[in-house]
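User: Last request for today: this protein with iron/sulfur cluster, please.
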Amino acid sequence: MRAVERVTGHALPLDRRDVDTDQIIPSDWLKRVERTGYGAGLFSAWAADPAFVLNDRRFDGASILIAGANFGCGSSREHAAWALEDRGFRAIVAPSFADIFRSNCLAVGLVTAELPEPDVARLLAAVASNPALELSVDVESRTVTAPALRYARSFPLDEASRSRLLAGRDEIDQSLAHERAIAAYEARRASWMPRLRPRA
Amino acid sequence: MTGRTLAQKIWNEHVVARGDGESDLLYVDLHLVHEVTSPQAFDGLRLAGRRVRRPDLTLATADHNIPTVLDRPVADPVSARQIDALTANCAEFGIRLYPMGDAGQGIVHVIGPQLGLSQPGMVIVCGDSHTSTHGALGTFAFGIGTSDVEHVLATQTISRARPRTMAVTIDGRAPVDVSAKDIILGVIARIGVGGGTGHIVEYRGAAIRALSMEGRMTVCNMSIEAGARAGMIAPDDTTFAYLEGRPHAPSGADWERALDQWRGLPTDPGAAFDRELRIDARELRPFVTWGTNPAQAVAIDGAVPDPESLDGQPARDSARRALAYMDLRPGTAMRDITVDSVFLGSCTNGRIEDLRAAADVLRGKHVRTGLRALAVPGSMQVKALAEAEGLDRVFRDAGFEWRSAGCSMCLGMNDDVAAPGERVASTSNRNFEGRQGPGARTHLVSPAVAAATAVAGHLAAPADLAR
Ligand code: SF4
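Assistant: Here's the final one, the structure of the complex with iron/sulfur cluster:
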């Protein structure tokens, strides 16, 4: 995972709530076995409409996505985070995120910044009228800022996720450091609990 | 002393290491794997030179993109590669696989309980959001992404923030025509698609206790459609009776030991939940969705709502967009909506009771001319059982196609895709835009309503057919 201290850049305003991961990346893309190359599938059904915001060239190169509440609901497909990442997004700002989607984003180093709904509404409007508006999502200080708006607000980010983002650390290594605790736990599990055997 | 909830008991029992901040490292008792969300995880293991820590606690099946007509090869070369990758990965890492065509194959959330692998008090994960299904047996079961699939394969643990808990109590007895599907659609309509976010929901109350295990699985299955981290129901005699004698259930003295432990799991009297919701079962009706998320539902006796009547700008915007996509007008009676197809199946409603409920409506009747109707059992075992009961004949005689097990038209990753503009009454769990095929329009319904709709040609309840 890539380390990320701060994401600074302009933003894409997606003024919709309850955006589900089937929209972020349609299931047709889920047949692939590769880890990269999902950017072309991002919002592909909605992008068929020329008026869809992703087709607005003024937002090309945006590294921050601003969206409505409950972003990323539905399917657990991590492909949604991969598609956003592949298209150059490094942070998402929304009033709330679906739980699995948030975990997936943090696992790949995509920062999820939750702000109060009125703040997000204000940022959506500001970016829509000024696509060049610069925003910053700072992991170190857990703050979203928009200097031109004199806007700054902190967002919640648990300490474990924050330090992992900052260090770009592999969570598997971190968990394997608990090897003794894992082995001790395994030793005390009830013997009647189910186990499988691979087919001969 | 305040008591503990079912969720808290399972959580505490599984903490391997207390994390810094809000999260704990939890042990995973069962990891279910399928073809779509696992290939990149296995690649990650290979790249890092890691092994699967506990192949004996890992089970794989192919369900999402396989054809449901078995003598047909996998037509799509991209899907074929993915299915082959699962087979190769399971062979390489020593994981038990139920492949396409196997008698044990089925939708991952149908085969876990069916094998007796999902047992009370366990932590179960799978790279699939409907893992919440297994909560019906009193487990803490939740969906994870592919990075976490790799993490669980390598460590048999998962790190999660400590949960908040929510009690959803359905008091009283539900009307006879109200199924488990209607109960959960009613709950989601009440709390919204984000209403359970951050919470583990425990379903309680007389109407829940009265449900069979199949019905409880339907309820827990759709917890994710309210955004909940998991859904669960305390184990009781219904649970134990369901489990006893299943292939992986404990037996003999172990069964008694297990029962002892399971009986201690239900939420203690006086334990506090972070949130509580009460619903009177007598107020529930068969529900159908009109929009493009599962909370956009009304009673079948109702009508398509007027977006302008809804609270808040975002809700109005989203309803307006939904009606445009669904090609519906406010005020249209739900029963006046005609459909092109009916899909009976999925991890929500692809179990034997669901097939029986639909067959009961269909006996001696025929689907509307020109309407396409698909019955897809949730597992090959469900299929075999249904055939032993003669249900396949009922479906075929009524004009349904009778298929083999898989996810099928729930998400349209195989050939079972709805065409642009095609309107489907579906017993699955998601009516998102394009879910059943690009441009397809989905109405979520119960199995009985699906069957009645197939006969009537428009959204209908079984009682309507007699009129
Ligand atoms: S039946 Fe549908 S919801 Fe269930 S696992 Fe398959 S694709 Fe997912």
